[in-house]
Amino acid sequence: MIRKFAAELIGTFWLVLGGCGSAVITANFPGVGIGIVGVAIAFGLTVLTMAYAIGHISGCHLNPAVTIGLWAGNRFQGREVLPYWVAQVTGGVAAAFAVLFIASGAPGYDLAANGLAQNGFGEGSPGHYSLATAFVTEVILTAGFLLVILGSTDTRAPSGFAPIAIGLALTLIHLISIPVTNTSVNPARSTGPALLVGGLALQQLWMFWVAPLVGGLIGGVMYRILFADSAIRPDIAGDEAAHEG
Questions:
Q1: What is the rounded (10 degree) CA torsion for 59, 65, 70, 73?
Q2: How far is Cα 186 from Cα 244, in angstroms, rounded to an integer?
Q3: What is the pTM of this model?
Q4: Neighbours of 209 (CB within 10 A)
Q5: What is the pLDDT of residues 114-125, one digit of tens each?
Q6: What's the pLDDT score for residue 175?
């Protein structure tokens, strides 16, 4: 369990550092800014790379919504859900501090003005999307993410390609939802930046726990009912592939 805890903490740190770090430090850099597409790719790459690095240790969930979705899909043991959540949130918070430290090294960076790629709706949304729109978007995309995770790690799926499918799915999710919520689908990813930025981001953090967890449960139950069969090992999440978000 200690190894799994460490893997989830380090993996989630990598996710937030790579994803939020690219959004804060590189996305709008003069002359070489990577923009929304670059940020989306960065998030996908964090999952893909960590999937191969730690997937065989912890399953590389990196996301409380993925953990609860795998439990709902009968791929993960309930007694390990809370320890995974603690590791994931700890990694996310630590990474937010790291991103802030790096970004603060540039002249003109201001936490209040530039933020840490925090999530939001209404005033906190990049496109000023409403709470209802943001909530539904996060639920649908998280549910879809779980379907990709569960399907690509199914014993009937081609072996060894799950991390690629999962990383690309997370990239697609960001391409859709960055303008809406700055893309969460991951409460741990949302918690780190919100705690440091405070204010509106912290006030709205509840939504980026509730919606992804609801979506994760929906995706897990949906796959279990519609597509799973007795050939799937309950422990496959920890043995074969990695998952994000």
A1: -160
A2: 8
A3: 0.91
A4: 17
A5: 999 999 999 999
A6: 98
